[in-house]
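Supplementary Note 2. Why include the ligand at all?

Several targets in our set were suspected to adopt different conformations when bound, so apo predictions alone were not considered sufficient. For every target with a known small-molecule partner we therefore ran a joint prediction. The input for zinc ion is given below.
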Amino acid sequence: MSKGKVCKKCKIFVEDEKCPICGDSNFTETWKGKVIILNPETSEIAKRLKLEKEGAYAIKTG
Ligand SMILES: [Zn+2]
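The joint prediction is reproduced in token form.
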């Protein structure tokens, strides 16, 4: 029961055919936990997960 695909490298949810961060198309539909980052510069979660771009991310993949 997956909802969306995630870039294996960046863990960002991707709607297009290419990842908006790394430009790769290596996706997985196996992921756990979803986190929305709105302000990567001030978000503690973004810092902990080393996310630099706003968007929706999976916490775990694979
Ligand atoms: Zn990527």
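Residues 49 and 59 are 8 Å apart (CA to CA). The pocket of zinc ion is lined by residues 7, 9-10, 19, 21-22, 24 (CB under 6 Å). Comparable summaries for the other entries are listed in the accompanying table.
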